[in-house]
Amino acid sequence: MTQQHPITPPPELIEDWIEIAKPEPWERPPDPNVLCTLAAQWGADKELEACCKWLPKLPPWSGEDLQRHRRPKPPSLKEQALDELDRIPTHDSEGRSVGVDVSILRRALEQLPDSLIVFPSQC
Questions:
Q1: Quick one: angle between helices 77-87 and 103-111, nearest 10?
Q2: pTM reported for the whole predicted model
Q3: How far is CA 43 from CA 23, 32, 52, 73, 107, in A?
Q4: Do 81 and 48 fall within a single domain?
């Protein structure tokens, strides 16, 4: 009997991935890009879980610190909008105003609660 690698997905999970990756179940085979992405994410999450169990033994880090660092949340739509405001030119190369004032937009965005803003992948 051959030994399996410790990070080997169970057959049921692979079957689930195949169903998820089918663009239309009756038309085409599963999309290999989707399958590869799902497998890579699953393997990376398994590796991260193992690191989080091991790391607390080595202060000052904790498993939670590692997880936040290795799996940062994507910026919210609000954060992305505020970043885009910084890209709008408000002055020319000589420092003169070009007539664009984004301060009202910035204040309005800053007042929005982050919890009500969806990530682009949720749109």
A1: 170
A2: 0.47
A3: 23, 16, 14, 18, 42
A4: no
pLDDT in tens, 35-59: 999 999 999 998 888 888 777 776 7
CB 98 within 8 A of CB 91: yes
What is the tally of structural domains in the chain? 2
Q: Show which of 52, 70, 88 is a domain's final residue.
A: 70
Q: Kindly state whether residue 30 falls inside one of the protein's structural domains.
A: yes
Task: List pLDDT tens digits, range 1-37.
Answer: 455 566 788 999 998 988 888 877 666 788 888 899 9
Distances (CA, A) of 32 to 25, 65, 76, 86, 94: 14, 33, 29, 39, 52
Residues 15 and 55 in one domain: yes
Kind plus residue range of the DSSP H or E element containing 14: helix 11-21
Its domain, for residue 53, covers 11-70
Asked if residue 23 is part of any domain, the answer here is: yes
Nearest to 88 by CA among 74, 77, 102: 102
